[in-house]
Structure formats: C-alpha cells, structure tokens
Amino acid sequence: MNNILRNVLMRRSVFHFDNRRIRHEDLLAILEEGKILSNAAKNQEWHFTVLQNRDLLQKFSDLHERLRPDVHTDFLGNPALNKRLLIEAPMLLVISGRQDASYAEDAANMVFGGMMLVAEKYGIGSCWLNYASLLFTDEEGQKALAQLHIPEGFTPLCFGVFGYKQPPTPPSVLSSEDHIVNFIE
Ligand SMILES: Cc1cc2nc3c(=O)[nH]c(=O)nc-3n(C[C@H](O)[C@H](O)[C@H](O)COP(=O)(O)O)c2cc1C
Fold this sequence. Notes:
CATH topology: NADH Oxidase
Order of helices and strands: HHEHHEHEHHE
CATH class: Alpha Beta
Oligomer: single chain
Strand order of the largest sheet: 1-2-4-3
Number of helices: 7
CATH superfamily: NADH Oxidase
Bound molecules: flavin mononucleotide
C-alpha cells in the first residue's frame, strides 16, 4: 500500500492530545500541502489562522461551554468533548474564506480534510470541531473572534484541532455488514 493510500485509510479522528507544540516545519508542510488538495472554484482565496495561544484557546473553550450548554455530549457520547479538546490540543486551525465565493464552506471543509490527511504523514492527529458559527453569535464571541485578526471580507468557515496523539488512536474498520451504500444500476 502506498503512503498516501495508507494515510487515507488509516486516519482516525483524535480525541486525546499531548500538549507538545507542533514542530513549526511540520505545521508549514500541513498548511502548504493540505491546501493544494482541493479547491471548489478556481483561485479560491483562503485565510488560515493557526491559534496556539493558550489564553485564547481557553477563551474559546469557555465560550463553547457557555454558548452550547445544550450540547452535553459529542459524537461518541463523551461529555463536553469540544470544550476539553480546545484546552488539550496545542493548536486550533481556523479556515476562513470569502463570503461571496461559491461553495465556500464546503470547500473549506475539503481543505481541512486534506490537511488532516497530510498531518498523518507527520504523526500529527486532528479533529474537526463542528460548532464554529454558533460561538460568535453574541458580543463576547465577537470579541474573541476579533482577536483572531481575520482579514476584512473573510469569514471563518471551518475549525479543527491538531496535535500529537495521546495515546495513539487504533484504526477503526467499517464492517462489511454495514448496509450504508445503495447501488442503483
Ligand atoms: C463534519 C464533521 C464535524 C465534526 N465535528 C466534531 C466535533 O465537533 N467534535 C468532535 O469531537 N468530533 C467531531 N467530528 C469527528 C467525529 O467525531 C469523527 O469523525 C467520528 O467519531 C468518526 O471518527 P473517524 O473520523 O476516526 O472516522 C466531526 C467530523 C466531521 C466529519
């Protein structure tokens, strides 16, 4: 199996990180290589925020707790996971795009997916965080958002954390018993 295919098949979301900062060279490679992988419209413009400031990450975690009190569990049934991930992971990536670009949000998610795969190559795990737009709905959220210094005209579209895995996540396998594909010929 070649390395790219291996990364695609073996990548799993990571829910536990150690707090080591990501090596700067690896971070640059994830951003550079990952963003090449997808673009919905030609010349789509992106802006990437790499947030490694612990105080601000704590702030986002607090916002999450306050603005999403209705969400007590994550996809896996763990309580308040996103809140914990924002404190535990050493880095939050925010992908912002032009408000008026076609399919901007879908494309941003594709770019994030590409970066998740590239990260695997460097032994770095990642997890999508699916709540972003709701965090910035009130004044306090807007203030926190302003601290990201996202350029005028760009909107944050996709959020996710990256970091070294702790402990390594075992691969999960889709069972052949799962009837989730319908072939119509
Ligand atoms: C669109 C999307 C949004 C997600 N948002 C969250 C999230 O907010 N919090 C979280 O812990 N995991 C999130 N996940 C990760 C899922 O928990 C994870 O994909 C799922 O448990 C399956 O694991 P796998 O990615 O290893 O196959 C998200 C995944 C996707 C595709």
